[in-house]
């Protein structure tokens, strides 16, 4: 039962739209031994109720629930009994603390009412602020501690819906590979960081946008990206890779539609607050600019190793320059690759570049990359190596904060240990980026394309002819190869200069 499938069986499987990961990936097959081994050749003909998408959604909800259980020491007492305990138990969350700290406990209206303390207004984008406010409306009354607990619980319930949406959207984006979404559902860093903050709202909208683009619905894609950008800044970055791919394929009309949808949706959410509460609205943007070098970035390693603080303006300029250089490299890669890259590949690279060059890396930022990684490079070994690095960083930041807040006891991880945790996060992300770049430069190594697919998440870009390339880049051409059972379309490359 646990044997790897034969070449003939694999070829037959390739013609089905829902090949299980245990028949595609050696690591998935080995891991399945814990539950009895790889699924049988004809097991997919079984129950029609237990579809791949439903299985993925149930697994995602189950892992999310395990992540909630991991926060129980904090939920019961650690959030309310000093800072160090919530770090030593690695169960910290912004949600209960900001319930009081951002005025939700006092029924203050985000962006309109001033806050007490250093933070004048809520420092989150408008759609995230609305999400936080709706959760406060649903929070029952009682003592302050009880309301903080219930506020976290209400938010966790709403974020669980987002997690299920993400898993379902990823499963549906690659029509022939729904099981790749198990990478999202089972990602340990995803479960650990899901309820630290409200990032899952933007991630869910971005995943839904990717699904819409894969279905050729450019306007819906744009609207969802606009809404996602109204919840977190990073989703707008996806318009850059999309421009490059549409430029190479000559699909400017669809790209223009997407951009108009993005702008319209973003303005529809932001314009009322911009007009009625301009000072509160711009707090997120001024806070992002003025924020000092913070946890998780290589900038922090520089400041800690040199013992000198870096001017925030200088860091902003250097981070912007590094990001522009990374984007220039991605653009060159997109326009010179021997075969047009897949949308998910470039989307992963640009968001990873933003994370790597940014002056702060909060542990929940890994959520931005998990769905994109599952679509860009659905290989279990490399995904789990990256996830191991992220879990080490997750533990490292809390142990470092425990060390800095435990006084003379110094319980936790010293500065040098935390710098190692940051380095692991950076190296793990760079490792996955390097593999994605290799897949782009050597498309025959791209596991998504081994069954003859071109760009399953590319929508109108899928199997489109190149209209513009740089250098000696080859253009895609269609070949039909005979597989066991049925002919299959395989998208190869035409040599440069061929007729």
From TrEMBL:
Q: What residues form the membrane-spanning segments?
A: 51-69, 150-171, 183-213, 219-245, 257-277, 318-336, 343-361
Q: What is its main location?
A: membrane
Entry keyword set = Cell membrane, Membrane, Transferase, Transmembrane, Transmembrane helix
Q: Where in the cell is it found?
A: Cell membrane
Q: Which GO molecular function terms does the record list?
A: hexosyltransferase activity
> Does the record's keyword annotation contain Metal-binding?
no
Any GO CC annotation of this UniProt entry: plasma membrane
> Locations of Basic and acidic residues compositional bias?
13-23
Map out region (Disordered) in residue numbers: 1-23, 476-499
What is the topology of this protein in the membrane according to its UniProt annotation?
A: Multi-pass membrane protein
The family database entries (Pfam families) matched by this protein are listed as: GT87
Return the similarity comment: Belongs to the glycosyltransferase 87 family.
**What protein does this entry describe?**
Membrane protein
Upper classification of the source organism reads: Bacteria, Bacillati, Actinomycetota, Actinomycetes, Kitasatosporales
